[in-house]
Amino acid sequence: MILLENVKMAMASLLSNKLRSMLTMLGIIIGVGSVVAMISVGQGAQQSVTSRIGALGSNLLFVNSGRVTPVPGQAQGARGSTSLLTMKEYEQLRREKGDAIEDIVPEAGTQTVVQYEKTNTTTTITGTTADFSRVRNFKPAAGRFIDEQDVQNMANVAVLGDTVASDLFDGADPIGKKIRFGREAYRVVGVMEPKKSGPQDMGDQIFIPLTTAQKRLLGSNNLKQLIITGAAGQIDIAQAQVEAVLTRMLGSTEKFTIRNQQDIIETVSSTTETMTMLLAGITGISLLVGGIGIMNIMLVSVTERTREIGIRKALGAKRPHILFQFLVESVTLSSLGGLIGVAAGIGASYLIGRFGQWTTAVSLPAILISFGFSMLVGVFFGIYPARRAAALDPIEALRYE
After folding, report:
1. Is 80 exceeded by the pLDDT of residue 207?
2. Predicted TM-score of the model (pTM)
3. Distance between CA 184 and CA 216 in Å, rounded?
4. What are the DSSP calls for 329-376, one per residue?
């Protein structure tokens, strides 16, 4: 009953000064709203990137030449020779693969200028086998992908990524048309569906048969990378088998790098989560600014209501009663600001997702933490004004004009 009565008195006090109360709550509203919106954007980005990478398969291993050194935003590769993996290692892995390894797909390629009539673009040429489409879960939207006959016949056929198709043909149907790169002309037999792997646009490349790439484009049997699929639940065993074979053949683990798709997903998730928390922390500073505003207005309120405090004490109100009254007012002020801020944050997340074309994910824990923190701000910054009100001498308070 005492709490309910104090809440009623707090609301009456706030409503009697509506504009002042709203301006005081503004810092809390902005702080809570910003935290909720930033966390929703960050978690949406994390879910989007994770789902894109996960869509390519969580049981994949990527084997590259040399020791890859991670650098923010990119992968730097390899000390020593720029190309150590060859068809020899690929064939040996195929011969020795155990039950933990399902598929091994080789890739060879380079970046070059591609021309169609008077239009040209610079893109990546990837030589691979028919299994690539299935292993990377990357399917043609039109036409077909490379088949085994293309690889055996060293055919001059090409499958375009959607980005390259748009750059070269600008919406026209490319199937059956001939494009040129290197010293050869290639007949387009397919166009791939739009797809991204994290920040990488997989549509910005052209696929040709592995044999064609090695013999007619590159002039060597070197490989850019091997993509290996592990059996369900046996990806670690598969990785150990691959490492053992390549170490024996190449003589050192420094000459190759094995990247686990699950490790990539976890690294991206961790990085995105860290950035989200950093953004939330920066925007949360406005909560402290709002708390200072609450302390200021409560001190003003104590001064304005000095005679009221004196009368209450003269009628028998104890020090804890006065302390509790002003503390409830402070918490009520911050809690209302927190509620409005949560609503504003959810609304901002929706608008960002709707008009900014970003993936957002409103998080219940973020809402609860933000609202709880706003209440703690009210308690923390309300303690001093409440203690000051409770410490007033009743006689001096009654004399106050």
Report:
1. yes
2. 0.59
3. 8
4. HHHHHHHHHHHHHHHHHHHHHHHHHHHS-------HHHHHHHHHHHHH
